[in-house]
Amino acid sequence: MLHIVVCIKQVPDSREIRIDPVTNTLIRQGVPSIVNFYDLHGLEEALRIKDELGARVTVVTMGPPPAEKSLKECISLGADEAVLITDRKFAGADTLATSYVLAKTLEKVADEWGAIDMVFCGKQTLDGDTGQVGPGIACRLDLEQLTYVGKVIHVDPEKRRVRVERKLEDGVEVVETSFPVLITALKELNKVRRAPMPGMIRAARFKPVVWTTNDFPDIEISKIGLKGSPTIVSKTWVPEVRKVNGEKISGEALEQIAEQLMEKLWGSELAQKLGWA
Predict the structure, then answer these.
(1) Are 5 and 120 in contact (CB under 8 A)?
(2) Which pLDDT tens digit goes with each residue over 123-134?
């Protein structure tokens, strides 16, 4: 049976993110947290492979204790096991330190539940937006990596190979490689399912496996958290709000409104520049 691991992250809901104008940092208090939606597409693909071919799906995340909520959501959708890596020593990690800890976690997952065939990550997270963690894990574990995947064409567990479509700037690339492989998912990859009632009941009772630094005797403290994070964010800011003048067109009939709109467009400065007027 295939063993698929999905790396997820709990992130602030991007629709409600605000930045403190004094400190130039994200205001997280009062902002709801969600599972990074690119990661959910990776989970969905893992679950589709499980439904079709049979597989064990393990979900892992590094974060504070409240990230357990996101793991439970993944369990409700159909994941088999979930692991929370949490410790104050992991706090402040950039993508380099995060990929190091997650790589160590995948090694431990393989020891606990068997060799890993496929790893799914989202192409990027909504808060960091770098797209570096997935490839960082692959490099550390010497995995084949397929980034920006918009479609999984075929998975062959006997030959231990997978064929996908990768979305590039100038087109689509069809590529095939062998296991073990790490795939970063685009939102076009699939449509995420809704959690069934039995899954929600299981998730409500589920307790994820929790690992701290004590569970990684060979981990190098200098490579985790702030100590292992060379990235420095010097400044963040909110773009200035631009005021745009507008005019409301009203009328009793659609034809009347359309006529007024055409008169405004044909007489506008833009129409004159384009040579329409």
Answers:
(1) yes
(2) 998 777 788 999
